[in-house]
Amino acid sequence: MSDRRIPSFNIVALGPPASGKTVYIATLHQVIGGAALARGISFTTSQPERSRLQRIYDQVANPHKTWPSTTSVGDPMRETLFRCMVEWTGTGLWRKRLRRYAFPVFDISYVDYAGEWIPEAERQDPQLIDAFYRKVQDAHVILGVVDGLRLLQYLSGDDSARDFLHDEIRPIVEIMRGHPVPSHFVITKWDLLNGYTPGEIEDRLLASPGTGFRELVEARTAESRQGNAAGRVRMIPVSSVGDFAALGPDWEIKKVIDRKPTHMNVEVPLVAAVVDICDMAQTVLREEERAARLEKSQARRSSRTETGNSGANVTVGPGGLTVNLGAVMAIAISSGLEVGRQLGPSAARVGRSMRRQYRRIRARGLQAVRSDEAALFYVARAFRARLAEFEGEPVVHPDSALALATAGQKV
Amino acid sequence: VPSVSTQSRSSAMWPFVVGRGRTVPQRVILAPGFLVESECDYLLLRATGECPDPESVTPVTLSRKVIDDRIGEFTVVFRLARADPELVGQHGDFLLDAGSRPIYLAEGMILREDIPVSGAAFQRAHAAAMNAFRDFWHADDRSAGPRYSEPLRLDKLTAGEPALALSVFPPIDHRESAPGTAPVPPGERRAENRIRPVPVTLAGRATQEQNGSQRESGQVTDSGRWARIILVLAAVVVLLAAFAIYKLTSSTGSARSAQPTQLVNSFCSALTSDNPASAYALTTPAFDETMSEPRFAATLLNSDGAARSCTPSTGSSSGAATVAITTSRGTRTWVLTLVTYDGELRISRIQAS
What we know:
The structure holds two protein chains of two kinds.
Chain A: E1 8-14, H1 21-33, E2 41-44, H2 47-61, E3 78-91, E4 98-112, H3 126-137, E5 141-146, H4 148-155, H5 164-178, E6 183-187, H6 198-207, H7 213-225, E7 234-237, E8 245-247, E9 253-255, H8 268-302, E10 314-317, E11 320-323, H9 325-335, H10 339-343, H11 348-364, H12 372-392, H13 401-405
Parallel strand pairs in A: 1-4, 1-5, 5-6, 6-7
Antiparallel strand pairs in A: 2-3, 3-4, 8-9, 10-11
Chain B: E1 12-19, E2 27-32, H1 33-37, H2 42-47, E3 61-68, E4 72-82, E5 104-111, H3 119-139, E6 147-149, E7 152-153, E8 166-168, E9 172-173, H4 186-190, H5 222-258, H6 260-272, H7 276-280, H8 285-290, H9 293-301, E10 309-314, E11 320-327, E12 330-341, E13 344-352
Parallel strand pairs in B: 2-6, 3-8, 3-9
Antiparallel strand pairs in B: 1-2, 1-5, 1-7, 3-4, 4-5, 10-11, 11-12, 12-13
């Protein structure tokens, strides 16, 4: 494995107690641990985390056990690091001997914590809360986890959910509005909301006074049009167990003995997060490169000395061309083929090489992954395809006011 | 209500309980006045956190010391147990919250001194804790604060009873000046070599490889510098060799791909072998922008998986070629415009003839 630096993304999922944050990450680990996105793409984590998440998922999937207990408010936040890898076995270019190709592409850090920390922060240990808020400040993406059961109670007009908007939506929206990073709402337990569409739910939230949801969406839409894209706010329905869970009397969620858990859209929040981060990073990179070019041209006017650097992301030196993979990743995922152009005119050689690699990936798929850059393109292609598939699903966004409000923006 | 000044610090134990209600989140339900009045009852949440799953281990009595600037030192002796449904008039094995999750309670006593705790003393604390939990459950009031606990007097308990065996947990040092007061996730404590995340931004910072040391580029040791120079030289030699090999092999390859016949044959072969993606890969990026891969396949193959046949015929000009593609709807002839792109021959346009 190479000693290069790997981009790392921090994702923080905010949600009230019992909204399903821990079950979601255990299911996410289950789903993305295999080749859910494309052949050869896997996400790995450390052994203690793997066994902890597996234990939680086993309890979720066992019809004879209760749902997992809550995350204790006395537990420090828990950070799970997933490493995205592209791996395959094939013959080498020159020799026909079988060899294993493995390329790490990026890391995702996912933070889990007790849901009480946000609505009841004043009752918690300041040491734990401070560490958590520092993590929120460093987040590249914020996911707002909405409890599907509580949402259903609210939509049904049940008295127990009269404070749902105030207690469970508003605190999340307030944090999102204070952090201009890509943000999405993840509606858990979606199977319970049979009969509703995400569009209807968006409409209800947009119309709800005092939550700040409409203001958040409008602000993000306006920022996107000005080119400061923090990404559109998506409404992503997910289900960790499908119809393995059924609603009983008195809103009790029971496990159905003769069914097995099924998943829906579990990996989509992660995919959308990475794509949005890269969109945002690309905007920043463009600004940086524009500023660098301006600075360079001003320096040239005062001195005719050539620096040898060809841009912020490509450096020409005695060791050859060095490419900032983080920057390339941002460009690759958000722009596909435009890599060379985005890297700057004097990086044309690198651009040509990358375009060639991208074409190989497109034509030969996993078998073309023989370098870090090729692995990056392969993952980028899979992520964009999965997001496009999700956004193209007619059942997901058929009549979404949010989608209409943000129509025409680049996704 | 007991207060710090009126309590006997040397001989008292205070019962406590931490748990959740049907809709009320986890919180301290019963605690000594000196903790509640100083708004330090969250120390009980910390002290009873990070514990093993009570369903997966043999029930034990746990002990943990807490050191705090405002409260001083105290010891929490407690057990984690399922809340009994019968306590609140329900049936079944588990008491469930509104999210259908089982409720567990951390219950026990707080001691100012390290003194042995007997089973009888713990039972008294348990009784007080259960009374408080029952009232808390029935009230199900999110706005209610913790109830103050009355101290249990040791002298009223049976003398000579053996002390409970305690599993001692690492203390919680909550002093401002305490080293390492920042909490460490239990996963990290258990496995020092786990992957450690370092938050970064894409443009600037980045994480090191797992287990790798973080080192700025300007802080390289002498031996590291020499090693780097040798590595760079070796890399240059390898690159030159690779470049030479590449030139030798690619001159043949590019000559081959530069042939229009070769390109069109590859195009046809991809279409007849159910692999339109490979055919699409032979087009230029400008073409890609005008037509997506699915549309490309649908246009040429009429929704068939593969062409039944594809007959190439290149014209006298190297800039154009024609192919006759047969699908379930018949045969159509297409004119391909060929251009050189990045040193390779590519298809820039496809037109029906």
